[in-house]
Specification:
Dihydrodipicolinate Reductase, domain 2; 10 helices; 298 residues; five-stranded mixed sheet; globular; Rossmann fold
Length: 298
């Protein structure tokens, strides 16, 4: 069978997330970056994308829709308020839209929990960076125990948080809470986000406090370690830094560092959600190639 052509993808948004996405896409043998779209032709992100060899445009979603080239996948790295319009504009084209904003418009996906769902939906929502870091652990615990309460505290360096993310902090909290409820079944959930101005910048950290009746240190540690190992298969900088059980209270801390492509190592918040996005796109590409090969044989 002849090698398959990479799927054509576009990145909507030229901030920190968008440019790191471009770097990751260019390393993928199954994806090809066809266009990077921003709103300011002089934006540094668009200049960086052009220096990486990508075509660029500066009219937002209008540039994407007007493009002569159809795209198999579009990554939305803009903001939650704009995503609903982007979905409405792109839906008629049959493009897979991977949403990196906390919009809650599409189907929520965390790769190690329900990654296969991404192949069934045209709009995939990646929750939030805090959701991508916490849900795999919390879901693993929920498969053995009944969780009574969950608190997720996310701390990110202020230098790693762009304007769009700052505009979406309320949506970030609500979407993260919604994801924890959806993937664990627990109703009582609180999400908190801190933007740290510390210098040097602190790495991305997520702390989870869980009320877990019947918790045992050995089984809890084993569940947490196994879930973390799965995440590391696509986000190698994901590490458990604490896992303690005191009576029915469990505390787990995660630290995520970036690979250092176009973002600094402390920006693990961007790295984990972008790594999840590219993984989903690659799995979608594999499924499309399988469909094509089946048609050829028939």
């Amino acid at each position: 069978m002849l090698p398959r052509e990479p799927l054509s993808v576009a990145v909507l948004g030229a901030g920190l997330i968008g440019i790191d996405l471009v770097a990751k896409i260019q390393r993928s043998p199954s994806l090809r970056c066809g266009l990077v779209v921003g709103r300011d032709s002089e934006a540094r992100g668009l200049r960086q994308a052009a220096s990486l060899g990508c075509a660029t445009a500066a009219e937002g979603i209008d540039s994407l829709v007007a493009s002569a080239e159809p795209f198999d996948i579009v990554f939305d790295a803009t903001n939650a308020m704009a995503h609903a319009e982007h979905w409405a504009r792109l839906r008629p084209y049959g493009t897979l839209l991977v949403d990196l904003t906390p919009s809650r418009v599409g189907h929520m996906v965390v790769p190690t929990v329900n990654g296969a769902d991404a192949l069934k939906h045209g709009n995939v929502n990646l929750v939030s960076c805090g959701g991508q870091a916490s849900v795999p652990i919390l879901h693993a615990l929920s498969q053995r125990y009944t969780l009574d309460y969950v608190e997720v505290v996310t701390t990110a360096a202020s230098l790693s948080v762009g304007r769009a993310t700052r505009l979406n902090l309320d949506e970030y909290i609500e979407t993260t809470q919604d994801a924890v409820r959806t993937f664990t079944g627990v109703r009582d959930v609180k999400a908190i986000v801190n933007l740290s101005p510390a210098r040097p910048p602190a790495p991305f950290r997520v702390a989870m406090s869980v009320v877990l009746p019947g918790a045992e240190a050995g089984p809890v540690s084993a569940l947490v370690a196994a879930a973390a190992e799965e995440v590391r298969s696509y986000a190698p900088g994901y590490e458990i830094t604490a896992c303690t059980v005191t009576d029915e209270r469990v505390f787990i801390a995660v630290e995520v560092t970036a690979a250092g492509d176009r973002i600094p190592r402390y920006a693990g918040n961007l790295n984990i959600i972008n790594s999840a996005a590219v993984l989903i796109a690659e799995q979608y590409a594999a499924s499309q190639h399988l469909v094509g090969a089946t048609k050829e044989r028939s």
